[in-house]
Amino acid sequence: MNRVAKLVAAVAAVGAMGAFSGAQAQEYPGSKPVSAVVPFAAGGPTDKVARELTMIMSKHLGTQIVIENLGGAGGTIGAKKVVQARNDGYTILIHHIGMSTAPALYRNLGFDPLKDFEMIGEIADVPMVMVGNKQLPPNTFKDLLPYIKTNAAKLSLANAGIGSASHLCGLLFQSAIQTELTTVPYKGTAPALTDILGGQVNLMCDQTTNIAGQLKAGALKPYAAMQARRVEAFKDIPTAGEQGLPGVEVKIWHAMYAPKGTPKPVIDKLSAALQKAVADPNFRAKMAELGAEAVPAQRATPDSLRTFLSAEINKWTPVIKKAGVYAD
Ligand code: ASP
Predict the structure, then answer these.
(1) 250 and 226 in contact (C-beta within 8 Å)?
(2) What is the model's pLDDT at position 8?
(3) What is the pLDDT of residue 327?
(4) Which of 10, 69, 143, 189 is the most buried (most CB within 10 A)?
(5) Are 91 and 62 in contact (CB under 8 A)?
């Protein structure tokens, strides 16, 4: 941000804070809808978690939460928009693990995940599965690994941009097999999946929330669960470790944020509604059906998220620095 833009943002922030009195915080949310920015394409994994959640959370908050999809640059464009939004509780962000990997991937990120947001709480954990187009010859991950080695030049790996979950998983995978593939970025894995199914790209490491339907329908080749244990909802898919590639493990956690300076009574109301939503049996059942797991209510709190986000930044920063990958 240049100096003028910084000044404008600072004046806007002071104005927003000044305009928001204690009484207004008490009245929040009233009947005004809340805009939840999802920094990826509609119909994708983050969108699915966000829509299932906000349908239930809206009832507990007492007003409608409306999703705004703003994909691009691995989720950083949408996150930046929320940093710059009015801090009045009517704009929030639903994002995933990318909040903890972006600081290492983007030298000019333009925001600090820990300093430029108020934490509301965690939402759900989603596993990842390496999938391929049905036309790919290998049927198992064990066979896929040597196939990749000999065909690397003609194979492509889709992702949702640098900083996305699919990017991180793909990065860990390529580093583990010491082979580089051509990566194809999309605004989310929803459009990427269309191209996988159509055969325009070959492979993708994706969240089960996006591919559950296709896995059940047998429309994709499910190569490996990218975590230590098999996914409860897809027990027939062996892990990468079981098939000779241990250590490639990612869990895609999701959380909710508000712009810095959003008044505490507002954050408390949002977090209370979130805690009720994650404990709701319908939300928990929907997540389980998609292979995911809603967090326990005690993780849907600002303190828990702050501690967790900070630990995740500390976990992923050295891994990404070691890989020497930068988005900018
Ligand atoms: N979460 C992204 C999406 O919703 C995908 C990803 O991060 O890989 O499309």
Answers:
(1) yes
(2) 47
(3) 82
(4) 189
(5) no
Q: Which atom of ligand 1 is nearest to the CA of 96?
A: 1
State the angle between helix axes of 189-198 and 45-61 in degrees (0 to 180), rounded to the nearest 10: 140
Q: Is the pLDDT of residue 124 over 70?
A: yes
Residue nearest to atom 9 of ligand 1 (CA): 188
Q: Which of 77, 173, 189, 206 to mutate to test the pocket of ligand 1 (most atoms within 8 A of CB)?
A: 189
Q: Could you tell me the strand order of the sheet in which 203-207 lies? A: 182-185, 156-159, 203-207, 128-132, 221-225
CA-based nearest residue to 130, from 209, 194, 203, 181:
203
Q: Are 123 and 278 within 8 A, CB to CB? A: yes
- Cα 302 to middle of ligand 1, angstroms: 23
Any idea which residue has 């319908």 for tokens?
A: 282
Between the CA of 211 and the centroid of ligand 1 the distance, in Å, is: 11
Q: Do the two domains 30-125+252-323 and 128-243 of this chain adopt the same fold?
A: yes
Residue nearest to atom 2 of ligand 1 (CA): 188
Q: Tell which residue, 241, 208, 50, 209, has the closest CA to residue 141.
A: 241
Mean pLDDT of 274-291: 97
Who lines ligand 1 at CB under 6 A? 40-41, 44-47, 96, 160, 164-166, 188-190
Q: What fold characterizes domain 30-125+252-323?
A: D-Maltodextrin-Binding Protein; domain 2 (3.40.190)
Q: How far is the CA of 296 from the centre of ligand 1 (A)?
A: 23
pLDDT digits (tens, 9 = 90+) for 170-190: 999 999 999 999 999 999 999
Report whether pLDDT(13) > 80. no
pTM score, whole prediction: 0.91
Cα(46) to centroid(ligand 1), Å: 6
CATH of segment(s) 128-243? 3.40.190.10
